[in-house]
Amino acid sequence: LGLKTIPSISPLSWTKFIKKPFDLSKTKIYLYPTQLDFSGTLAGSFSKSLNTDGANPTATKQDFTGSVAIGYKLFDNLTGSLTLNTVRDMKDPKTVNLTINPKRLRLGVEQNSSQSFRAGYSPTLFKFLTHSVEYSARYSDQYKVNTDSSTSHQASVNSNTNFTFSLKHQSLIGSNKASGKGLKKGQKGPPAIVSFIMMPVKGIRYITDAIKPVTVKYGITESTMFPALTEKATLAYRFGFSNDPGVPRTTGTGVNR
Fold it and tell me: Is the distance from CB of 230 to CB of 207 less than 8 angstroms?
């Protein structure tokens, strides 16, 4: 589900007569998500074999794979997205209850899950100075059965924070390329005193015109993993805001179920 044109409101349009220091009249708040997608797949299999002992072991598999993707643009310079994925074992009817009541809804036993979160902020306060901040976090959780028949969760999260600063000096002091255009017929040039004052500035521009905009990038990456938790980690850990999963650890050795 996606709209080509997202409805928006301009709550600060009344400030259009205020141009300095910032023009806030064009600020828009968007009302609907830019993306809202749901998908799900139910796949099953049944196998039966005959071994050397004459037994007929059977194996049944019935898994549900679901995904939800949400994208949102609150402002033109503030965006975010969240993707949730899950794989659930539904072969045991006791663990399945399809109902519209969310408190009683059960979709089997979750085998593994993951989520990806991203947010970006890139304000434009000055033409000569731009900066942006982007944060992303990817979380994964895997359900395990321990050797003592107890269960645990293996959780991990990887987060990245990137800062970008760009100084466009030509927008600050101008450029000889822009000011070096010839005068049109009948158009007068600037007064002599202005040309005299601008001579040192033009000298500086000859140097700055040869220098590309200065861009500085800085990034922080963090990764944590916990092999055995009693339950799923807290939301703060899943989004990478905390290195503490917020739930007790177990000592059992787990294997993928």
Answer: no
CA proximity to 163, closest of 241, 240, 216: 216
Distance CA 64, CA 125 (A): 48
Record the tokens describing residue 63, joined without a space.
């898994």
Distance between CA atoms of residues 37 and 1, nearest Å: 6
Rg of the chain, C-alpha, whole Å: 30
Is 195 in contact with 226 (CB distance < 8 Å)? no
Q: Which of 15-29, 128-142, 147-161 has the lowest mean pLDDT?
A: 15-29
Sign for the pseudo-dihedral over CA of 169, 173, 176, 181? positive
Residue 256's pLDDT band, with cuts at 50, 70 and 90, is very low
Dmax over CA atoms of the chain, in Å, equals 108
Q: Which residue has the tokens 């033409």?
A: 127
| Token couple for 221 | 């990456």
Average pLDDT, the chain: 79
The upper half-sphere exposure of residue 57, i.e. CA atoms within 13 Å in the direction of its Cβ, equals: 4
Give the residue among 72, 25, 60, 250 at the shortest CA–CA distance from 155.
250
What three-state secondary structure class fits 230? coil
Residue 46 near residue 59, CB atoms below 8 Å: yes
Token pair in block for residue 150: 């107890």
Give me the amino acid identity at 249: R
